[in-house]
Amino acid sequence: MAPNPIVELEKLGQSIWYDNIRRMFIKTGDLKKKIDEDDLRGVTSNPAIFEKAIAGSTDYKEALQELAAKGMSTNDIYEQMAVEDIKMAADILRPVYDKTKGVDGYVSFEVSPLLASDTAGTIAEARRLWKWLDKKNVMIKVPATPEGLPAIEQLISEGINVNVTLIFSEDAYIKVAEAYIKGLEKRAAAGNPVDHVASVASFFVSRIDSNVDNQLGMRMRRSTDQKEIDKLSSLLGKVAIANAKMAYQKFKKIFGDKRFAALKAKGARVQRQLWASTGTKDPNYSDVLYVESLIGPDTVNTVPPATYTAYRDHGKWALTLESDLDGAKNTLAQLKEAGISLEAVTAQLLDEAVKAFADPFEKMMKAIEEKRAAAVSSIVDRQSFSLGNFVPTVEAAMKLFNDRDYVRRLWRKDATEWKEDPVHQKSIQNALGWLHVAETNLEQADDLKAFADRVRQDGFESVMLLGMGGSSLCPEVFRRTFGQIKGYPKLLVLDSTDPATVQSMEGAVDVGKTLFIVSSKSGTTIEPHMFYQYFFDKVSKVKPDRPGANFVAITDPDSKLEKIAKEKQFRRVFRNPADIGGRYSALSYFGLVPAALMGIDVKELLERAVRAEHACERYVPTEENPGARLGAVVGGLAKYGRDKVTFVTPPPIDSLGLWIEQLIAESTGKEGLGILPVAGEPLGDCSVYGNDRLFVYISTQDSPGAEIEAKLKALQEAGHPVVRQVMRDPLSLGREFFLWEVATALAGSIIGIDPFDQPNVQESKDNTNAFLDVFKKEGRLPDQEVLWEGDGCKIYCDAATKAALQKDGASLSDMMKAHLSRTKSGDYVALTAYIQENDTNENLLQDIRTHLRDALKTATTTGYGPRFLHSTGQLHKGGGANGVFIQITQDETADLPIAGEPFTFGILKQAQALGDFQSLSNRGRRAIRFHVGKDVSEGLNKLLQAVRSAFPKHN
Fold it and tell me: Are 747 and 819 within one domain?
């Protein structure tokens, strides 16, 4: 059995503490398990941790109700609940305290962050909490502010254990150590024992790199001197560790000199340095960087959950804290030479950190107050199920989650939850970065806002996102939901190769005053790359000096797009974590950068997502875990045959279904299995639905929903299962994104597929490239079999379909009837339209799908090509053979050349349609291509009349 890296650290003199606490973590045995299995030595807490748990979960529901009934104030309720958690955790850690003779086994609890500038208030608060907690193995957290230092000295002199927090600089650390020693000296002088007083000095690490790296990046982007750029680049990700290493040398000197020796002779303990803020924020760096680089004797590392899991999985251990000290000194010297003051950085970080802890404290007070008044409920309370006869089915799915420990395994990135093949497992493990990306990106929210403000100040009137699939659908939801926010550029999203669409996008902006976001995970996806080539050429003509200043890239580290961005001097490159798949990327830079640029409050969006993260954590029972409950419903009912999840999303979030559609279809549609998301289909009467539907109603709390509710109630009474989820307002989209990511991953466990790969998406891409190669060689695309032709329209198909459907003298209505009559119970009809998405075309497509649903009693979907190729397209090919397809194409009335390419957008779109159809044909799918000619609306009207004639409504 491989060694446990966390256990190995103890042998090197370093203790690992866990930077998280909440009631379920304690009561479900997760804390005890970490102590027993990992030799966990302590726990730290802060207001932000409590705020997320209290506001987002049901952990404290009963306690809050009970305390509120006693008439307690908001602050008293918080303290009562938090103190109970600290006491329970301290009792569980007491054996560690005893075993280590008081070295470890501590739980830390913070004085109110609102007292950070109040020495007397801090002392009084710490005394009160210490007396109330009444545990030897508790530490009171006090910030290393100028007002906090005398409080630390006084508290130590009184024998109160102190965790000194918010230390960023060497100078601040020296003052903290001095306060600790003076407190011990004062205590010894009074004749009191010093052998049981414990303290740690919490030195914050990664936030320094976040701040410094931003400054370095800005200077690199503005520089034209490659030597200077290289020099600045060499400092990235180095400063925080160098700073900590130098502080450790001060620790050794202070606690190794004669002054402390006198106290040590009386049994005094050294004040260990504790490395805090050790979660990696930058995807360019190892996820265990700030653990592996800071290992040394007499230290503690308090590790957030994601880093804890990562280090236990693949961490390395060695005495690194004193390695290459000359290099650390050189790093700090070079930083100074570069004109960046570390003293100014650490002073700024202290100010920000005090506010960063005060803000969640105040939010927590507000959340508790609102819950007392029953104005706001937890995430679980905002979710309800009307399952009728399907309750046992869902309960069985929840039992499966519990029996197989699926939720815990998800959070531990245990790929055996989905696949047994080692190669497949490795791929899955590298696709779960979305679990913690919201929390990680919270620290980037201010930087994103600052970037958005600079873009505004530079006079940009529009922002156009050039993307496809996972990189475009979340921004599209934001665009449709929030519209143009006053004072910010309008956001446009281009994810279509349709020439008319590209042309209309270009016509809607002044390209010289437009910031283009090239958004591609791999950097090789053909659509965003062609969009980039087209618009870079356009910008070059109006801003020939530096067109790259109008471009931003969002991509994985070291991708082809990053190389282009550097070569063309893009305004900025946002390197996204590589362990996040496109459809799970909504809360990463792919969603957040366009959100910030259009003026959305990304910090609030992320905070709500993080509350959802805490509500779905591994130690929350399935019955109270909103993501797991949703996954059990979706996955459990799909196994039963209710595999058509029909979304009802009224304004202002009516576009949310687009994003969820991609997530579910691309995640579950493979290996002949799949769950079909049905988005945008109007809600009908009970008579038009088969027995394969699950209805999901997502709304904001102020959405008018009387008519919808009446229809849903009728559906319930007819035996259909219904899920309801209520959002506070559109900013709760962050919460909704995370819940559906968890639910989809867990539903994949039930149906037995890997929800993180997309094997058939690449196939359509390959087909497209093959057709483009034919065009390059022959100057034309290959023809398909013509099934029917008339009145300016044509129907194309493969040879097998032609043999099955061809009839002499048949009308369009006859052909539609022959094709669609092959639809059976449990099937779905998909309209895949390679045409411009506009109101006229959309209304006609909706009329066609609604008529087909009503006539055939089958689920219908619509999708615009090539967008759907990166979402439902995976399910079309990889899922079950229960789809009936009508592909819709057109003659291009106008076309657009692409700079640097031998083909046009029109040819690219046609090649994508042919490649898509070939994939369907290769699998024997029931598919035809309806070619409308040049007049799209006229052709769609003919199709509508044909299906109405083929399937009269009374039938």
Answer: no
